[in-house]
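Exam revision sheet. Question 4 asks you to relate a sequence to its structure. Input first:
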Amino acid sequence: MSERCGAVSVFEDVESLVRALKRLREAGQREMKVYSPVGLRELEPYLPRRGSPVRFITLAAAVAGCAGGFWMCIGSAHLYDIIVGGKWPAAILPYCVVGFEATILIGGLTALAAILIFARLRPGRPQPGYDARFGEDQFGICVFCPEAQVQSVANLLKESGAREVHEHPERTIE
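Answer key, structure tokens:
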């Protein structure tokens, strides 16, 4: 286990929050959590962007659905071996409809399931550095940094307009 400390700050207005985020990014701090009672578009350029795995799961399921749709049609054509007019039993063109429908069905249902799984709708432990005021009318930033940098980060947050700043130790497994 390694010890990481966090400086937790409370802000009253959005302008000072955005100013603090900008200064933290300029200072090279990338590991932080931002708490806000509402979603704010002003914060998006300063927050870390993480892609959702839902799109990859949906793509894999859609490809599997397409392959399954074609396999089902071609497999049943070969199983019953109905030869009409001397043609090959598995005609690909008519099976495109079934392949398309299986793609949409399996991809859509898997996307819905993945969204529900990754949305974290279940109640969990409170986030590190979270204060109940962040859900009402205050904004907050919890910056995770080595112990040696906590004082400089706290000073930077105070200079940016934080109403209060305090240290929040967190134990993590690295």
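Marking note for examiners. Residues 2-48+129-172 form a domain with the Alpha-Beta Plaits fold (CATH 3.30.70.120).
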